[in-house]
Amino acid sequence: MDVDIGNALASEVAQGVSDASLERLDERVYRAHERIEAAVEDREFGYASLALPEDADPAALHEAIESVDAFAGGTGPGPAAVLTVGIGGSALGAETVTTALGLRGHHTLDNVDPVHVRRLLDELPLDETLVNVVSRSGTTAETLANFLVVREAMEDAGVDWSERTVVTTGESGPLRDLADEHDLPTCPVPEGVPGRYSALSAVGLLPAAALGGDVERVLRGGAAGHAALEPSLFECPAYAYAAVAYALEARGATTNVMMPYAEALEPFAEWFAQLWAESLGKDGLGQTPVRALGATDQHSQLQLYRAGRRDKFVTLVRPRDRDDLAVPETDLEELSYLGGGSLGELLDAEFEATEASLAAAGRPNVRLEVDRLDAEGVGRLLYGMEAACVLYGELLGVETFTQPAVEWGKRAARGLLGGGDFEEAREVAEKAVRRIE
Amino acid sequence: MDVDIGNALASEVAQGVSDASLERLDERVYRAHERIEAAVEDREFGYASLALPEDADPAALHEAIESVDAFAGGTGPGPAAVLTVGIGGSALGAETVTTALGLRGHHTLDNVDPVHVRRLLDELPLDETLVNVVSRSGTTAETLANFLVVREAMEDAGVDWSERTVVTTGESGPLRDLADEHDLPTCPVPEGVPGRYSALSAVGLLPAAALGGDVERVLRGGAAGHAALEPSLFECPAYAYAAVAYALEARGATTNVMMPYAEALEPFAEWFAQLWAESLGKDGLGQTPVRALGATDQHSQLQLYRAGRRDKFVTLVRPRDRDDLAVPETDLEELSYLGGGSLGELLDAEFEATEASLAAAGRPNVRLEVDRLDAEGVGRLLYGMEAACVLYGELLGVETFTQPAVEWGKRAARGLLGGGDFEEAREVAEKAVRRIE
Fold first, then answer.
1. What is the percentage of chain B residues whose pLDDT exceeds 70?
2. Are residue B229 and residue B313 in the same domain, yes or no?
3. How many other CB atoms are there within 10 angstroms of residue A206's CB atom?
4. A144 to chain B, minimum CA–CA distance in Å?
5. Structural domain boundaries, residue B84
6. Residue B274 near chain A (CB below 8 Å)
């Protein structure tokens, strides 16, 4: 992974960062890195995430998958589909890894929309589906409700769910009890690692492994990202990205548009949005992540990015190398320039044109590149963004690894559903209504 | 469609709008509506969009579909799949309508990622696929390049593309020439209607019609939305939404989070984001639309929305009624409150809990509801948001129907690909580079 901050410099765009300012910021990066390094070494809460490439245990992951009765021993055919039942950090990392690696057959139930759940269950080959239930606490309402529905759907279809289910959860809780009761294979949720930082653990890697992905190489990419952490933004791409994003925010870029030019990175942008939002969005601070996709969103969002409020910067991401597809020659004169080229060349031209177009309008942007979207490149990219987010949190002075603001709504919903007496549920009932029909 | 602005009032949230302020704003709504009504009547550029429910010609649409040789006459089986080749406004409306209506088999090539294009073409049953090419100018690089690739893939598979293709384009241009040459059925892009406002025309309705959707009822829903336009925000849901969004922006909510609680409305949020971004994001103004999905993003973005910068408001959307799915009883004590309920009840509880959670933290939010996600509800919702956006543009004083900022990049990309001599392409070559590896 490397980062090009050329279009974020004050010499190029008015709201950019000056060299002198970056030099001063680098002193803070140095100290923050010392803090991060020591905390990772001690596996402090949250910081332990950055030790995952070394701490994760892929052998245990494979063992859990091979212990799923219906697909036992890895001798028969593997599952045709993996159904992850999880939400937020329990789903986004896994979705990101399988999609980035181009693995097919991974489906996710990360919402409780009855229409969607029913349709997905109708379409899946249930007897060939590995159910991957993920919840650290084992009490996440959406996940557990969906799992109850999945179990029943399998029973109704005459399929033994207990022979097709693997559970990833903490050391205790209802899911752990259930796994014990039915003797289900389990994977641990790593200690001290918040969900949004768990992509490089069983939480993020199990579906990829079950579908034949090379998760050891993903972890190797993560380890390379770890080895690339240096105590200077001028020496370390992840820190360069974070420091520049932070400096741009201080100069007005309160929105960070994450815009990969690769369909396989669409879930990556979602994953990044969670990482950024939950880690930094607190105490009235934090950059708002916006998920975009190149080249598609040039025809939807670029007008705003280039000519709207000066409150954003754009992160353009691409693999330097990818399989390509030729565009046939055409006798349509006005389009002849497209023929004989390739879709990859067109996409690269769009990428560079958009980048320059933003700079020409004085809009800061940063380029992130990986060599290729292979297992190592994906691991490197995920690790790099996590390290960037941790550094950003240090610079901003927030509690990077907690998400206290989501508790209120959880209690309210539980109270509304009769799961206990919660004051928050009473507040829901008192909503101010001003309805226009 | 109705709108509840209770949680956007100053009496509820600090950054909210006072009643007196809304009264004053309503005078501007009155005048803006007079202007809009006259311009729609005269079919002025852009404003003509709001007359589409009456002007659209669904019979011509059906005729075009029935003229596609491979599926001729509607007597044999219809196409198994519809492949829309288009980008931005030429794809998002169609995707929104088919998904909201729950129609299966609509695929979109709205990006030029070679890996993705190849995979999709490998998976589609090409001989049973209707190719729906959409470009007003007939020169959109991404669309035309993809179409050339699709044609070749069909030829390679021994499938006659010219018997499976319908073209939606303007009165002249390369696509029109090509349609004439091969005697392909065509639909017109309506005059005076920018792409992002074309959902209620052939551009947005053809795939739904080809897959058996009731597009007449969608148009009827749009017409009901038109009939519901009244010269007061207190009488008209669409204007209430726009006026409150505008007033909240003036009070700091420069970001508008569009968060439907329905998987089938995920493309709707994308469509809304284009509508809002391209219409309002200009002259250094405009609210940034952010696409979210409930309940999923409660576990990803809610921390930020509730505790991050006070620069947002959240639009919560749901159908009041939907098909439901029971959650089985469970003997897991801690989860027994979930058993015996339904996923729909859980989703509604999450919706209301999130809404109240935001209000309790002083974060403005607005509720949008439709009776049901049926054809009429979808048409009503799309029309309502378009009318809202037009009113917002009037209040903001921008040129709602143009998108001038995207031209620079188009010229640059064309120049880079050898499609002519463009100064912009030279600027791309001069990019400032500051790379950290």
1. 99
2. yes
3. 26
4. 8
5. 57-189
6. yes
